[in-house]
């Protein structure tokens, strides 16, 4: 069995999850959508669990290529923002797929069912440079 470095393993694993070819290159229009949720009751583990439950349902929107649901890491550098409760990171092939996601019934139902849990949401959308 061929050994591979941790870096090569992570790159190939993430690449496979994003549907990247063997060359390791991303789709030209890769669209990244990263959302940070700030709960109304920041100390409530049950509210956090309920939001994560909703995000797992939201992950079923078919235009999403890869999703990661996370909570603040236990890192302490001064540049790290840790006041959010849950982050939602997802990748799309392009802007059009992200726009379909925005109006998809699963997304609209998620907002209807879970928006009472958060007081603030911050969204960072990004695209890679044109190749």
UniProtKB/TrEMBL annotation:
Pfam families: Dabb (PF07876). Residues 31-126 form the Stress-response A/B barrel domain. It comes from the Bacteria. Signal peptide: none annotated. InterPro entries: Dabb (IPR013097), Dimeric_a/b-barrel (IPR011008), TAT_signal (IPR006311). SMART domains: Dabb (SM00886). This is Dabb family protein. It comes from Larkinella punicea.
